[in-house]
């Protein structure tokens, strides 16, 4: 074959037709077909995206009204697909590296998440990898996780004593709520907004379309300049008041969100029982963890506070009183201090053996997991267990020290992890400082700059 | 073997050679019979019906010949045999190591195979998809037109009284059938090997939920169909390359390069914006059939992207093939 511009010599009747258009025009007309195909394909892929960018019509509401409707909304069952995207400036931890879909993948890049929830006690959340899944199934106080890559089940449940205590506390809470001074959703909304407006500007912007549904968008802008957070956008479904998307923008890149979690597809129907049930698949490794009172409260102070006032009967109020100072602010555990306020808050924790944690030293892990942690709840121990790695099981296991070295950069007197929204400083003398502030602020707080 | 050898009456012996020789001979008749006549001995075609029926019959005969040629060619049979061997060897290997320390190690779904033979189907396709199957695609489609041109038989083929566009379709169908045969053989061999060595049971999905064996088999059929569908875009690309040259090996190499480049681009996070439109991006979405809630939306995305590549490169191949001067 040669170029189409050559004088035709072929026996093909198409190219040598004596009448009608010349071969050259004919050739041009034929080459127009792929050009049209390219345009048509381009249009087919871009037009739906443009069409969905229109702003939908919803009645105007104030931030108070919107928050009140969220607070008063019935529990809504839903199932749907959401896309999570992190642009935090952290290295990507791919599913191949973690041996299948794993929460560590959420550090950066895009992940697809499927959610089924009955609106109250039961839910299933699946983090999808290319050929793997990490599922978290909750049913009341029980939690199962299943990693298809590792074929491993973790089951966390409460022992009888703890779940009994929880039931009593819930009943007390419900009794209190039905009898007396519970604020109406309107009042609650006003209270919350008044508090939040001390640090932020909160407005309701033009409605947006999320997952094909019309939604209100709430814009929260920190009033302080000392934080890495530029603004937060939350889309709330106009009909059911369920939040449909959250976008957090960093001051480093005000155009694309540093963190984004948004439904791409959602339906508000009750998922089937099969979707919410969990049974360990045949052949999977099952790790059982039953939380006992001793896990949460090794020295018995909590139990003492809960039962002390009234002859062994539980009283949640007593515990809350003991863990708060005179003004009602919760007291901090030992070794934890807070500086700055609002968005620019920096939390500092002393005496952390980072090297021990990284090498998976059981003593260091136990010490951290056993205490109250500044970052949250009992799940922390599990998380650190995961980070520290127990070295068993097939597949690639992540080298935690290498990951730590990769994530952090050395500074004078410690190491810093800086991302678009959060900075962490680990000093050589065992202090850990965390805040949604520039690294420089952490260094100053720690007295290193 | 090439068609040029087959034209020589001296070559013969095996059934495959005989078929190829017969096809080539039937095409060569056109030289003597003149362009206006149907190719082959069956003159009654043109006599009994109008030009439309004669054209349809000519197409049907050409298609039959093409399929016989593609599937009868020794090199293609060898290729299919090697593909079939992959799941068999994989199954035997996994059965041997199932009690050793190596059990449960390896990429993808390998660790599941020993528990349920159905997983051998997914595992085999998973392992063949990145390189082996694109190789089959490039051999099938890259050779389709360029092979004929290189062997000097393309101009005889053009004497068949059907439009060039339809001839191209016949060629595309030949390539498609070869690729489809490859995918089906891998799946079928994996199914049989898996069943014999490990037995079937309830299929554990990626979410930890299970479905029964029957539903599991249906899902495996879905995986196989999706994998075959995923390769259609690359077939169109290969066919286009094949119309550009007389050197079949060049078209084949270029087709492999396209699939490799697409995979490389897909792994660069900086290019995330174009990832959804890449030829290979949705290939591993066959895993959707292993999720509890098979999402039609995800599968349709894959289908839409392949359809787009087929539309663009199919029309490019058509424009090139119908306007080019064919001298060999």
From TrEMBL, chain A:
Keywords: Membrane, Transmembrane, Transmembrane helix. It holds the Pfam family DUF2092. Coiled coil: none annotated. InterPro entries: DUF2092 (IPR019207), LolA/LolB/LppX (IPR029046), Sporulation_related (IPR052944). Residues 15-26 have a biased composition (Low complexity). The chain crosses the membrane at residues 31-51. Residues 1-26 are annotated as: Disordered. SUPFAM superfamilies: Prokaryotic lipoproteins and lipoprotein localization factors (SSF89392). This is DUF2092 domain-containing protein. It comes from Miniimonas arenae. It comes from the Bacteria. The keyword Iron-sulfur does not apply.
Automatic annotation (TrEMBL), chain B:
Residues 27-55 are annotated as: Disordered. The keyword Membrane applies. It comes from the Bacteria. The chain crosses the membrane at residues 78-98, 118-146, 167-200, 220-241, 253-278, 298-319. Keywords: Membrane, Transmembrane, Transmembrane helix. PANTHER family: INTEGRAL MEMBRANE PROTEIN-RELATED, MEMBRANE PROTEIN. This is ABC transporter permease. It comes from Miniimonas arenae.
